[in-house]
Amino acid sequence: MQDANMDFQIIDYLKNPISFDELSDILQKLDIPAINLVRKNERIWKENFKNKDLSEKEIIEAMVAFPKLIERPIVVKDEMAVIGRPPENIRDLI
Prior knowledge:
The protein is mainly α. The protein has four helices and two strands; from the N terminus they run αααββα.
């Protein structure tokens, strides 16, 4: 994004927690279910949530409560968003 001379803002949601509504909005822009944004190898997920039948709301609540569970980086542009891994996803967005 720096190479493309784009203005951008970095939001460190590990330091500045994201709200349920903000995360829901991002998921809508990503056009994916919440489970696809979860870092399933995180110990928190494995110990507390793995193999449980969770609703979409419960998964979002888990990510809000434990931001380490959120896949990152996420790049949002207007009404669209992508997960920045692999980096080619960002190039497709910009």
